[in-house]
Design a protein that fits this description.
heterodimer; A: Rossmann fold; 2 domains; eight-stranded mixed β-sheet; 19 strands; 23% helix; 32% strand; globular; B: mainly alpha
């Protein structure tokens, strides 16, 4: 779990352990810490080695002049444009927030303008922090992958679950956790090559589970008792090992990939094999690749090397699939067959 | 080998080692030209290492094909490259 510790000499300084990065954040306005705590505390998987510390200052009232030269060559996100300037990453938000990252120096500065729509501004600042963490993880040698994972009992190999948000990664994962499978997480995984072989590592221990999933998984109880994940979704932030104890793993070896899709007019489950190019395409779509060649190269290399070792399948999930008898059996058999 | 820097002649020599013959060289040169045009390679100061050791059973002409669907240009976040589906 992430820890928060008030520094004895500076009451505004807080420390968050976020996988292979440690953020030491100095908030000029402590209210911002309250607003950002939900995001910063979610990367709570244990990390075995010493992590890189990044000092972050969050300044509420000293916004430098808007720099119109930032056009998003490095990344264009929904809320941010990011450029790499003289070795620094500079991101600006639509509401006028700004971040400068000097990863090599282990520091970042965030400037927050006065703003009436606080919720939108918090979400913008969250995206600065996600960018900062993604860069810090990459700097530490890990590639962030938007994928879930499933590991059979008594195995150390995992199936990566690739799909856009809202496609059912978490529900499919839960359907097999209750049958003894384990997981690194439902949608956030770190990936690296270790002695030439891919290695996946857990980053966040809590799942984003829709309350309706309780219809199919009665042992989960009422999921509405868990806190909401964001204002945009009904999904809840669920400590999944309280429902299925022992289901969380820290590390696994990727050996297969499932590209998960909704199939609103189709049968409960359809399985279609995919070959090497399809596996690579599917994994590439789960990774944010920046425009800076020096930053993109290790990520692409890691994805390509990993994809070359994975067997793959598309799984199309129909409506009410998890209420259908036999679907979990077929899922389990399909995933097992990819690992043999 | 392009990851660590290689000249055109080094690519041709490595390809020959991997099974290409002289009549394949124009196609290999065309591929290199295409990679340069697509900005998939950039000038390097010097070659940094020997070509990767690979074991081939059969030489196949390398080709460059673009994704049918381009990768996302606008992403949710620096972690999530996709746009969320409506729920």
């Amino acid at each position: 779990m992430s820890t928060i510790a008030a520094n004895s000499t500076c009451r505004r300084q807080f420390v968050y352990d976020c996988g292979p990065a440690k953020l030491v954040i100095d908030f000029e306005n402590a209210a911002w810490r309250e607003s950002l705590h939900g995001l910063l505390s979610q990367y709570d998987a244990p990390w075995p080695t010493q992590t890189q510390a990044i000092t972050v200052s969050v300044n509420n009232d000293s916004v430098p002049a808007f720099q119109s030269g930032i056009i998003g060559r490095y990344l264009t996100l929904q809320r941010l444009r990011v450029d790499c300037i003289d070795g620094r990453l500079v991101s600006i938000g639509k509401l006028g927030s700004r971040m400068e990252i000097e990863t090599n120096a282990g520091c970042a500065r965030i400037y927050i303008p006065p703003q009436s729509d606080d919720v939108a501004l918090v979400e913008e600042i969250e995206q600065h922090f996600v960018l900062l963490l993604a860069r810090a993880w990459a700097h530490a040698g890990w590639g962030p992958v938007h994928a879930g994972s499933l590991v059979p009992a008594d195995d150390s190999r995992c199936v990566l679950l690739c799909a856009p948000s809202g496609s059912g990664k978490t529900t499919l994962t839960a359907s097999l956790l209750r049958r003894g499978w384990r997981t690194l997480g439902d949608d956030k995984t770190l990936l690296r090559l270790k002695a030439g072989a891919p290695c996946a590592r857990a980053l966040a221990r809590r799942f984003h589970l829709h309350p309706e999933a309780a219809r199919w998984f009665p042992e989960a109880g009422s999921l509405t008792v868990w806190p909401r994940y964001s204002r945009w979704t009904e999904k809840r932030l669920v400590q999944i090992d309280e429902i299925w104890p022992g289901c969380l793993l820290d590390e696994a070896t990727p050996a297969a990939l499932v590209q998960l899709e909704r199939n609103p007019d189709g049968p409960a489950i359809t399985v279609v094999p995919i070959h090497a190019n399809g596996v690579l395409n599917s994994l590439l779509r789960q990774v944010v690749i920046p425009g800076e060649p020096g930053h993109a190269r290790p990520l692409v290399n890691c994805v390509a090397q990993t994809a070359s070792r994975l067997k793959g399948a598309r799984i199309l999930i129909g409506p009410e699939a998890f209420a259908s008898p036999g679907v979990a059996d077929e899922l389990e058999q399909t995933l097992q067959s990819l690992l043999t | 080998m392009l990851e660590t820097g290689a000249s055109r002649s080094e690519v041709l020599a490595a390809s020959t080692n991997w099974g290409a013959d002289n009549k394949d060289h124009p196609k290999i040169n065309a591929l290199i030209d295409q990679m340069i045009a697509e900005q998939l390679v950039e000038p390097a100061g010097s070659a940094l290492g020997a070509p990767a050791k690979v074991t081939l059973t059969k030489w196949m002409q390398p080709t460059l094909s673009k994704h049918q669907e381009p990768l996302q240009r606008i992403m949710v976040s620096a972690f999530d490259p996709g746009l969320p589906l409506a729920e």
